[in-house]
Specification:
By secondary structure, the chain is α+β, with helices and mostly antiparallel strands. It is built from one helix and two strands, in the order E-H-E. A two-stranded parallel ribbon has the order 1-2.
């Protein structure tokens, strides 16, 4: 089973921004789930 530091639900502009900020904050694995 894979593990992720952050799971972002929603691939809109807010979801992408959240994923970018998580990456910049040091999270190595981020997954974006579109809905």
């Amino acid at each position: 089973m894979k593990s992720y530091d952050v799971v972002v639900i929603g691939g809109g502009s807010a979801g992408i921004a959240a994923a970018i900020e998580a990456y910049r904050s040091g999270c190595d694995s981020v997954i974006i789930l579109e809905r």
